[in-house]
Backbone:
């Protein structure tokens, strides 16, 4: 197909992906499918290539999807949205990641659709749980398996006269002796609990904040991860009528079970204070960051990946969270080993009964593989597959950036059209494998001859384009000829391929911006005309473009 990628390239990246992958081209006010992967074809039970969105989907759904595509094109950057309509009969939430691509005068959109129903359920379950625990009238306490206090709700503070700020982060051994005695029986029961045992309630006598003793029914639920108890959720209910107590305890069990399901579904979970100090991290978070749990607790969440994401980005995220809103997006961070990784992050501010944010919950999903595939795709779109040098699309974009700089500095750009001499003889005499390696080495010789600010691109066969920027109009010929001589010298030094030494020559044509043209395509035509005149004079010749060559 006439596009920046071949079907083979897209299949190499996405052919076996479990996600739905579409590659569409904009035509008029609709989009036509240029490629779909196997997963997509199985879901739709047909090949969509050659059809438009309007031919495949109901009008309302097609209009909504086209609106999202236009948003990505207008923003000229990746755009993500969730769709609950495409597979509505299956009650599936689909997250669509759109990447606009501009090539050969056409506009394309690469769409990767991922099933995020599980993540959505985890987020909704946890938010539902937080709403219940913060507003319930029953005292609730969460502690780690080593009896460090993670959280208490407002009802707990009121009933027993304890301040959350004074209790958070303390272990059982840090508590006053009188408090230890009061909770001694509860601790004994937790010590004796083993995974697999049914959840039980027990009656305890505790002293309330007014100094009076009351009986409470306590139910403790373990939070289990990877076969180990990580924490306990403890709910205290003051005994009143037995029948009502039983009913309410059953409701509490269901709530806590929902919470466990949410945690089990979440890939990587961390909780930190509004100032960024991490209070909790699960095993998956440890694995994705490379830090041990004891290293993570007390660490500033901003320390993970500060050299990747800008301070401005973190400040924007922090501003949204502190406003009470959930932030969702993609972040690149660094592991302890300094290796980069990408996550799809949902950051949820946890709000207490007074409306204050007391913690932030982070639910993270590793998308490193997907981002690496996107980077490969981006490289293929702008580079030649044989020489790994930029292609014509890339040098056209780079030329536009160069123009702004030289116009401001009143300098020139030289466009060199280079054609290897007798390349056909290499293919005929040594074969195409040697010819391919010859072209790679030819490109490398050119690359190391130019300056860092210049650009070289392979545009086909043994033809290369070079853009030399920052040329002084007063010394243009001298500066250009210096670089031309370096190219010739590096080609003459040559290289070895299968015990054969190659030291080729090349013919070159040169055109100047803005002296001879301001349009890149016109400059290439003029440089090609000069190249033609150079070849008329023999091999290894260089010609500057003139309007009336002899």
Residues:
């Amino acid at each position: 197909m006439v596009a920046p990628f071949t079907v083979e390239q897209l299949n190499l990246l996405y052919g076996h992906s479990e996600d739905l992958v579409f590659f569409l081209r904009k035509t008029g006010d609709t989009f036509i499918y240029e490629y779909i992967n196997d997963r997509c074809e199985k879901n739709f039970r047909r090949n969509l290539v050659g059809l438009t969105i309007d031919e495949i989907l109901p009008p309302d759904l097609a209009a909504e999807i086209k609106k999202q595509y236009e948003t990505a094109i207008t923003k000229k950057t990746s755009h993500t949205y969730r769709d609950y309509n495409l597979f509505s009969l299956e009650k599936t939430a689909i997250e669509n990641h759109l990447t606009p691509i501009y090539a050969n005068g056409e506009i394309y959109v690469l769409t990767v659709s991922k099933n995020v129903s599980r993540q959505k359920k985890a987020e909704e379950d946890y938010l539902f749980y937080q709403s219940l625990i913060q507003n319930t009238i029953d005292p609730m306490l969460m502690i780690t398996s080593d009896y460090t206090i993670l959280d208490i709700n407002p009802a707990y503070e009121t009933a027993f006269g304890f301040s959350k700020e004074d209790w958070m982060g303390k272990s059982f051994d840090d508590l006053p002796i009188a408090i230890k005695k009061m909770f001694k029986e509860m601790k004994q029961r937790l010590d004796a609990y083993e995974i697999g045992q049914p959840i039980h309630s027990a009656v305890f006598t505790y002293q309330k904040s007014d100094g009076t003793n009351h009986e409470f029914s306590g139910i403790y639920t373990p939070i289990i991860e990877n076969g180990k108890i990580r924490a306990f959720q403890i709910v205290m209910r003051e005994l009143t009528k037995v029948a009502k107590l039983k009913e309410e305890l059953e409701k509490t069990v269901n709530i806590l079970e929902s919470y466990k399901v949410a945690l089990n579904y979440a890939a990587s979970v961390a909780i930190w204070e509004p100032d960024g100090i991490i209070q909790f991290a699960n095993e998956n978070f440890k694995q994705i960051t490379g830090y041990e749990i004891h290293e993570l607790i007390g660490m500033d969440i901003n320390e993970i990946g500060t050299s990747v994401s800008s301070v401005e980005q973190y400040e924007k995220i922090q501003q949204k969270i502190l406003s009470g809103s959930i932030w969702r997006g993609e972040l690149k961070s660094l592991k302890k080993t300094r290796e980069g990784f990408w996550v799809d992050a949902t950051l949820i501010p946890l709000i207490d009964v007074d409306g204050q944010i007391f913690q932030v919950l982070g639910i993270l999903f590793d998308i490193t593989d997907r981002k690496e595939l996107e980077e490969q795709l981006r490289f293929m779109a702008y580079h030649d597959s044989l020489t790994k040098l930029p292609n014509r699309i890339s040098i056209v974009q780079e030329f536009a950036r160069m123009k702004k700089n030289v116009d401001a500095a009143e300098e020139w750009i030289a466009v060199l059209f280079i054609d290897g001499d007798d390349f056909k003889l290499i293919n005929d005499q040594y074969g195409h494998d040697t010819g391919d390696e010859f072209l790679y080495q030819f490109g490398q010789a050119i690359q190391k001859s130019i300056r860092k600010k210049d650009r070289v691109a392979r545009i086909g066969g043994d033809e290369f384009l070079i853009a030399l920027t920052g040329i002084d109009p007063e010394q243009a010929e001298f500066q250009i000829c210096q670089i031309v001589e370096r190219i010739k010298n590096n080609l003459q030094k040559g290289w070895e391929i299968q015990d054969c030494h190659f030291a080729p020559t090349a013919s070159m044509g040169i055109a100047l911006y803005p002296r001879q043209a301001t349009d890149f395509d016109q400059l290439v035509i003029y440089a090609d005309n000069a190249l033609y005149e150079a070849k008329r004079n023999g091999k290894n010749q260089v010609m500057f473009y003139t309007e009336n060559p002899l």
